[in-house]
Write a structure and sequence with these properties.
Largest sheet of chain A: none
Structural class of chain B: mainly alpha
Largest sheet of chain B: 2 strands, antiparallel
Number of domains of chain A: 1
Order of helices and strands of chain B: HEHHHHHHHEH
Helix content of chain B: 55-70%
Number of helices of chain A: 6
Largest interface: A-B, 13 and 7 residues
Distance between the termini of chain A: 63 Å
CATH architecture of chain B: Up-down Bundle
Radius of gyration of chain B: 20 Å
CATH topology of chain B: Fumarate Reductase Cytochrome B subunit
Radius of gyration of chain A: 19 Å
Shape of chain B: elongated
Number of helices of chain B: 9
Number of domains of chain B: 1
Oligomer: heterodimer
Chain lengths: 154, 221
């Protein structure tokens, strides 16, 4: 029992250290981090689209891009904690509707996850035709959300 | 006397061959299509019309070398001396593009070629609406080209407006209709001016085939 308790305290301590080592991030840092993540999504989208346009698409590259999309897509809704809108103090195109219309934003991010998982499943199965067929839905998920929740470029 | 004049309309001479007129009006239609489809973000239409425009411009460049006499660059690209003389009101007996209009044709063709080139590589913010060659450049380059594509469109729109104003100037001030000749191919006779010497049909077929080949080659990149 004492051992268990000690173990428990030890584990709690470890978690505490781990939490302490992850510095609390300011809203501005969160905005910049999500912008960097969106850049990754953008890069994967271009890589995927370009491969599908190529005369001989590379399946390993397609699998890699699709896996990244499927990994990042479920994180998207978590990139927008309260306070990371225009009030964060750095330039962000995130519109206030993300927080005022949380349900619609949630739906949009779920659509992204579904589309990204579908394309990743097709890529993992090396099914080029299915990847090709899944891309418009994925692009549509990006576009629908951006049209509603992203402000103008400049 | 007056009745006689009405009975016998002034003789007309050929000025523009059919390929040149077709080029002109297809360009007008496609320019409008691109304006609309660009603003409305109808990318499939925009790309299809853009590729058609690419073929059209290549055709016009070939026609400027091998086409009917008035379509040829050698017929209307004039040196600064001729331009200044024209501006001073010294006009020889001539039909077709005048020395100023000739240079505006060159400028418009050149800028259209650049505009099409930009569009081939351009991309929207999400790499969803892209030109057929966007895969050959980085995302950042594709975006920069898209911005220039937009700026150059506004310049082209200004040039199109200037062109229409010039045509109206000739029509209303000079009493010289430039629209009907571009539609029907003939104009009232100009004393001493040599009429159009048309090019044979095989050259038209050849130029169209070559232009189509260029579009196909671009799509294969």
């Amino acid at each position: 029992m004492r051992k268990l308790l000690l173990l428990g305290i030890g584990a709690t301590g470890l978690v505490g250290v781990a939490v302490a080592q992850t510095p609390a991030r300011t809203p501005a840092q969160l905005v910049q981090a999500r912008q960097a993540s969106y850049k990754q999504i953008q890069g994967a989208m271009k890589g995927l689209s370009d491969q599908l346009r190529a005369a001989e698409p590379s399946l390993p590259a397609i699998r890699q891009h699709s896996a990244l999309l499927a990994r990042l897509a479920p994180q998207v809704s978590g990139w927008f904690p309260a306070g990371t809108g225009a009030e964060a103090g750095v330039r962000t195109r995130a519109k206030a509707e993300i927080w005022s219309n949380r349900a619609a934003f949630r739906t949009a991010s779920v659509n992204l996850v579904v589309a990204a998982r579908r394309i990743n499943a097709a890529a993992a199965a090396n099914d080029l035709a299915a990847v090709r067929a899944a891309l418009p839905t994925l692009g549509g998920a990006c576009r629908t959300c951006h049209d509603q929740f992203r402000g103008p470029e400049n | 006397m007056i009745a006689d004049e009405e009975a016998a309309p002034p003789p007309r001479i050929r000025v523009w061959d059919l390929p040149t007129r077709l080029f002109h009006w297809l360009l007008v239609i496609l320019f409008a299509v691109q304006w609309w489809s660009g603003k409305a973000e109808r990318i499939e239409i925009h790309v299809a019309a853009g590729l058609t425009l690419l073929g059209l411009i290549v055709f016009r460049l070939l026609w400027g070398l091998f086409g009917g006499s008035t379509a040829r660059f050698s017929h209307f690209v004039r040196g600064p001396g001729a331009v200044i003389a024209y501006l001073r009101g010294r006009r020889g007996p001539a039909i077709g593009h005048n020395p100023i209009g000739g240079w505006s044709v060159i400028l418009i063709l050149l800028l259209l070629a650049v505009q099409i080139g930009l569009g081939l590589f351009a991309s929207d913010e999400d790499y969803l609406d892209t030109g057929p060659l966007a895969h050959l450049v980085s995302f950042e380059s594709a975006r920069a080209l898209a911005h220039n594509h937009e700026i150059l469109f506004n310049i082209l729109l200004g040039l199109a407006g200037l062109h229409v104003l010039a045509v109206l100037f000739y029509l209303l001030v000079r009493r010289d209709d430039r629209v009907m000749p571009m539609l029907g191919g003939t104009r009232t006779e100009v004393a001493g001016a040599e009429p159009l010497r048309p090019a044979p049909l095989w050259r038209f077929a050849g130029a169209v085939a070559l232009a189509g080949g260029v579009v196909a080659a671009v799509l294969a990149l």
